[in-house]
Amino acid sequence: MKAELNYANKKSLDSQKKIYKGLRQLLLTKKLDDITVTDISAICDISRTTFYRNFNNVTDVLEVMFNYFYKRYLLNLPSADNKLLFFCNYWQFHKDLVSILYNQATNVLYNVIGLYFKDSNPELLNLKVEIFCYLLSSWSKNSTWTKNYVESLISKTLTPFAIKLIIE
Fold first, then answer.
1. Which one of 76, 85, 104, 137 has the minimum C-beta count within 10 Å?
2. Domain segments of the chain: what residues?
3. Rounded CA gap, 54 and 49, in Å?
């Protein structure tokens, strides 16, 4: 992941957000592998040059944005009184993105989560990503699940070690 959100340049940041929103809109009707830079440029009314000034490729858009969301999650986690409830509250708004990544671009999840994973054991990283994604992907598919239901489900079905693994 080379690209990052450009906070120093408001016009660039606005373009990056617009590109992400356009890509998310396209993902409602097309698979990630079928979406081109031309598709994004058309839906966002931007030039291909603008796209490539901000991102390397289509998947890079999702990687940069997921990195942004995941980093913000980790920055705010230490101040949470109830870390499991914070997990549910935070990821409630991004569960659809995680579901898309889990189903279409798993490498993005491993790349980003791996950046912040403190344990060097690859099997634990694999377990963390799989549980994290399975929970959020299942939640995304079950629109009746509330954050309190998800918190209760996690509390009742996972061991304290597994909960800590996915949350931290």
1. 76
2. 10-58, 61-167
3. 9
